[in-house]
Amino acid sequence: MTADVIDHLAGVAPGSPLDGLRRRRPAAREHAQCSFDALFAPGSETEVTLVERDAVAAFVAGLHRDDPAVRFYAERLAELAPRLADTVRAETAAGLTTGPYGIDPALPADGAEGLRYRVRNPGALGVRLTAAFEHTHLLVFRPREASREALGALVKAGWSTTGIVTLSQLVAFLSFQIRVAAGLRLLGRTGVAA
Amino acid sequence: MSGFTLERLGWAPWLAPLSAEELTDEHHEALVDRARAASPYFLLLARDPHVLQARTHTDNDIFHNTDGGLPRAERELAATATSRRNGCVFCASVHARFAAHYAKRPDDVRRLLDEGVHAPQDGRWRAIIDASVAVAATPGELGAAHVEALRAAGLDDLAISDVIHAAAFFNWANRLMLSLGEPVKEDQ
To answer: What Pfam families does its record include (chain B) (predicted)?
Structure first.
């Protein structure tokens, strides 16, 4: 059983006013953690390995430039695959930008161009993670450009349908977790009434 | 499919959902609400049942918990503004209808969809929409000024936490809806 990760990332101390706020939404608190556990302590690595999960997570956290999340997920990856951690750091630096952006032909009034990231060192990441990182960057920064073809690139790199669902959940969940933790941290700084 | 709308839309997956015959007790438990077994979106997510189940319980508590905090209408407003900003036509249509219904303010919701997140709104909705847009940014842009504006609009700490959670949750939902399939006219 992992300690509550959002509490860790947001600096929520037991019994603090922030802790009290979180406990007013007990199922959301509990199941945000269950989501983390399902993704990062999975019952099976058949579809997506733990190294793949931690590598993508370190990349997602890095792209969000949220220091506590960057540290947390970088440490997990460094423990499991130290050399890969260096590669992920370099890819993150190459992928930094600000979002959301993207062009959806169905929403012509709203389009904004931006980086369409390609992996710098596919040799170091391997075929599966190269495809996963490019898809992850798409999901993080320009989700409106997601397409059938983007899923096709994952399939071509050896991702199964179920593996793609798990990868998508992982990136989407982290987009939630990092935002909640950052928001709670901010709320704590601005002073929550006890 | 073109443009944001309050109309009811369908959603067609780009990957094969589980079929009714493939559903085990574990999948049914993961779907939580049996009506979701008719949805291609939830049947696709059921391929990873543990994550789906946890996600569904998280979703329900953030939007349906009635113990104080932000009124349901404004949780739906945060979901709509987030979906508008991220470009998720399907999520925006669903949650715009909820926001319009619970707030009884269809014109204000329609303006948010038609003109975007910067369209004029009253002070309280302005503060909630601005905070949601800041939460949608990567890296995050939510700052002390947003919290101040929400407090000035009458939100207490729990209500502000609800804005953060509702907006953050739609950064999860939008990315799945946008990337695993597409909106279609409902009768398709």
So the answer is: CMD
> Per residue in A158-182, pLDDT tens?
999 999 999 999 999 999 999 999 9
Q: Which residue of A has its CA nearest to B56?
A: A31
Set of chain A residues whose Cβ sits within 8 Å of the Cβ of B118: none
Q: What ipTM was predicted for this assembly?
A: 0.98
Nearest by CB to B61, which of A27, A42, A43?
A: A27
In this prediction, residue A38 carries a pLDDT of: 98
What was the pLDDT predicted at A1? 46
Of A32, A104, A168, the CB nearest to B180: A168
Give Cβ neighbours of residue A35 (< 8 Å, ≥ 6 apart): A173, A177, B51, B54, B55, B58
Nearest by CB: B142 against A100, A143, A186: A186
pLDDT at B187: 64
Task: State mean pLDDT over B50-63.
Answer: 97
Q: Which parts of chain A register pLDDT below 70?
A: 1-2, 194
Q: Which domains does chain A have, with CATH numbers?
A: 5-188 (1.20.1290)
Contacts of residue B65 in chain A, CB cutoff 8 Å? 24-25, 27-28
Q: Determine the Cα–Cα distance for residues A146 and A12; give it in Å rounded to an integer.
A: 35
List the single range of A13-22, A77-86, B157-166, B178-187 with lowest mean pLDDT.
Answer: B178-187
Residue with tokens 């071509």: A156
Give the residue from chain A lying closest to B58, CA to CA. A28
Mind giving me the DSSP string for A43-98? S--SSS-HHHHHHHHHHHHHHHT-HHHHHHHHHHHHHH-HHHHHHHHHHHHHH---
Cα–Cα distance, B151 to B4 (Å, whole number):
30
Closest Cα in chain B, distance from residue A126 (Å): 23
CB atoms A27 and B178 under 8 Å: no
Determine the distance in angstroms separating the CA of B79 from the nearest CA of chain A, rounded to an integer: 13
Which residues make Cβ contacts (< 8 Å) with residue B164, sequence separation at least 6?
Answer: A179, A180, A183, A184, A187, B131, B135, B142
**What pTM was estimated for this model as a whole?**
0.98
